[in-house]
Design brief:
By secondary structure, this protein is mostly beta strands. It contains 2 helices and 8 strands, in the order H-E-E-E-E-E-E-H-E-E. Strands 1, 2, 3, 4, 5, 6, 7 and 8 form an 8-stranded antiparallel sheet that branches.
Length: about 200
Amino acid sequence: MATEAADKRITGYPNDPPRERKALNLTTYEYEFPFNYPNVLVDRVWVGGERHGIELFPIKTTDGSTATTQTPSDWIVIEEDHPMVQVAVIGSACTPPGSILVECDTIDNFRHEGENERAVSARFRVDNLWGMHLRADLLKQGGSYHALPVAGMSCVVFEIPPSHRVRVAGMGAIPAWSEDGYPDDVHYSVRYIRTTVAEDY
């Protein structure tokens, strides 16, 4: 059996030797808003003291003098001592459906020998997430989550290549009706992030 396996090669990769599967020793860490941890950076423009999670903007909007700020979205950046292989994000959108985005800074030997580094990045996105917290206008009008069937949380679990740093972003839908008092309330509110690391990678 061992001799047979050693003789096998995948066509097109003559220098790739037979491999052995890895058994990963996994540990999961949990982070809770407001994400005040030494290995976590909360990079955002909005500071609102939210009680349901950290609200992230998908874009940094214009100040009116130009069409765009040309700056990236808000992010929660997490670094771990061991490579992360899974990231879970739990939260709620101001207006559903929401979206979660994750970018990964992979470990040095992530790429296969000869791979074109420009071909693919370790970026992930999941859309159509239902589950919302009530916006301030609904709360001021006496609203309650009891009367809204879409009120609640959503969760996304990303299985990622081994990475030493991840960036988490999010967004909600654009409300965009004429009487809306919060037309740019396109946040996604992150309540928990769990990272799973492979300690023996």
